[in-house]
Amino acid sequence: MARFEISLDIPDINIKKVDTTKKGDRILTVVSTVEGTHCHKCGRAITNHYGHGGPIKLRHLSILGMKTYIRICPTRYQCTHCAGKPVTTQTLNWYDPRSPHTKEYEEHIMLEMVNSTVVDVSIKEALGYKAVMGIIHRHIDTEVSWKDIERLDVVGLDEISLKKGHKDFVTIVTARIDEQTKILAVLKGRKKETVKEFLSSIPKRLKKTVNAVCSDMYDGYVNAATEVFGKDVIIVVDRFHVAKLYRKDLDGLRKKEMKRLEKELSEKEYKKLNGVMWILRKNMKELTDEELKILKRLFRHSPILEIAYKLCNELTDIFEDDISKSVATRRINDWKKQVKESGLKCFNRFLSTLDKYWDKIVNYFINRQTSGFVEGMNNKIKVIKRRCYGILNVKHLFQRIYLDLEGYSLYV
Ligand SMILES: [Zn+2]
């Protein structure tokens, strides 16, 4: 049989023997090459041998697909300085006495967990669900560690519901720093007081670095941010939430018009309008020739839908254009006039929201970097939720978002 040697790459040990169990697991029995330890009472260096502790078996990285364990009987040392001559068990750098795995193995599991699920990793590694959870808990805090953050720039406030259709909301607080999104908190509910309490807990030195708060159109968030940060911080209503609202109004009109056309058109002609819901929701620039044809046919039957559709696209274009706040203000005011002159009623609700949050919506044009990441983050969380059948614990959700965001830079 061809043979080769591999180095175990673990410091401070010698391998005494290698066994293979009936199941095919490999067990490497090792001894420490480090002399002495520090007394757990007085902290002095001690070298007085006091036998060995019982064997511990630590899961390590697989070798050629075989489960591998490292077995060690830790050396014990007695302190001659302290009263009662206490005994201290030596520990080595490559394992944590609280864990049944080597540190290297735990880091490997953390990397496996990025964009994956506990169940999935547990099956692939033949490692219990609780063991995987234990590793996550040992490696990731359940809340943000402020000392690791230098500045905040843009803070994002957004809500998601944990269960589809349920009013079971959590608030996601993020920061956008150098094009990177950091998770700051997952808060239960979306009450103003909860959000305010968290924002107030941001250390002073970091509060000073916040330039803008990008939020959902929700009074609780907007007021919490205003009360904590005051006038110096710009509050921006996320443009994607704005777009969602006018798109929803267009969708409402589409439903009404389709009902009308279903009655008025022949079955054959009506069928030709199949798929218009998706076509209307798509970006116009991405439509195929076939889709454009269907759209034209639809507009022939429903001129008001064409007007509404064009108005929506015009508003999106304003948000896409690189313009100043004052130009944007003028153009959106013109847009409002157009809507009123068109006689369309479908945007009434949107128009009143637009008035209510006017300043905060046009604040977007001060600093365009503030958009997008909240929504991008939201999609990421939706994926985590889908992957993990809805994580209902806010602390665990925080850990998983953190791991997906930072995992590759931490464990590769
Ligand atoms: Zn001592």
Per DSSP E runs of 2 or more residues, the count of β-strands stands at 14
Strand content: 15-25%
Under CATH, the topology of the largest domain can be stated as: Nucleotidyltransferase, domain 5
> What characterizes the major β-sheet?
5 strands, mixed
Ligands, ions, cofactors: zinc ion
Q: Provide the succession of SSEs.
A: EEEEEEEEEHHHEEEHHEHEHHHHHHHHHH
Shape annotation = elongated
The count of domains is 3
- Terminal CA distance: 34 Å
Q: What is the helix content?
A: 40-55%
In DSSP terms (H or I, runs of 4 or more residues), the helix count works out at 16
Name the CATH superfamily classification of the largest domain: Ribonuclease H-like superfamily/Ribonuclease H
Our Rg estimate from Cα atoms comes to 30 Å
Average of pLDDT: 91
Spans where pLDDT lies below 50 across 5 or more residues: none
Q: Taking strands numbered 1, 2, ... along the chain, how are they ordered across the largest sheet?
A: 12-11-10-13-14
Please provide a brief summary of the model.
This protein has 412 residues and is of the alpha+beta class.
Structural commentary:
The chain has 412 residues and is α+β, with helices and mostly antiparallel strands. It folds into 3 domains: 1-95, no CATH class; 146-238 and 372-411, Nucleotidyltransferase, domain 5 (2-Layer Sandwich), CATH 3.30.420; 240-367. The chain is 45% helix and 20% strand. The chain has 16 helices and 14 strands. It has helices at residues 103-113, 118-125, 129-139, 192-200, 204-207, 219-229, 239-264, 267-271, 276-281, 289-301, 303-320, 325-342, 348-356, 358-362, 373-387, 394-411; strands at 13-20, 26-32, 37-38, 45-46, 48-52, 56-63, 66-72, 75-78, 87-89, 153-161, 169-177, 180-188, 210-215, 234-237. The protein has a 5-stranded mixed β-sheet, with helices on both faces. It has a 4-stranded mixed β-sheet with strand order 1-2-7-6. Strands 5-8-9 form a 3-stranded antiparallel β-sheet, with no helix packed on it. A hairpin with a 5-residue loop joins strand 1 and strand 2. Helix 10 crosses helix 11. The chain is elongated and about 95 Å long. The mean pLDDT is 91. The structure holds zinc ion. Zinc ion (ZN) binds next to loops.
